[in-house]
Amino acid sequence: MTITAYIGIGANLGDARAMVEYAITKLRSLPQTQFEQASSLFITAPIDSSGDDYINAVVAVNTELEALALLEHLQALELSCGRERPYRNAPRTLDLDLLLYGQHIIDVPHLNVPHPRMTERAFVLIPLLQLDPFVQIPGKGAAHQFAPAVADQGIRKL
Description:
Elements lengths: L2 E9 L4 H12 L5 E6 L3 E3 L9 E10 L3 H14 L14 E7 L4 E3 L2 E3 L8 H10 L4 E2 L3 E2 L12 E3 L1
Antiparallel strand pairs: 1-4, 1-5, 2-4, 3-4, 3-10, 6-7, 8-9
């Protein structure tokens, strides 16, 4: 069974743009997965954190991987890029978040889908809506309805 999944990408340490572009390239070769499209790259200020501005994007994939297997691949890519988790919202070389996994609602240790704060973050909503203006967030409704609430968050297209 093939599921459409959306993955959020962010980085703000080192050459963040190059890291996000590298991640997009690597996501093209996930097993049992067809890469569909990537949003533009966006620059955003850190939220609930410090450090340099982030480079963010969202990609859409069609995958046969189970959600936890997909998450394992994302975390392995993060680790291979030097991701460390010294504290919550720490600056990072690469952050990959499973935002949506079809219309599934998943709440297990280490994975919550839809991503619990995606409706509160312009750096997720704007690139996501660029890929699919009509995307639905399971249990919440149309993603575009949340855009006005994040309009005050600084975001600009690269």
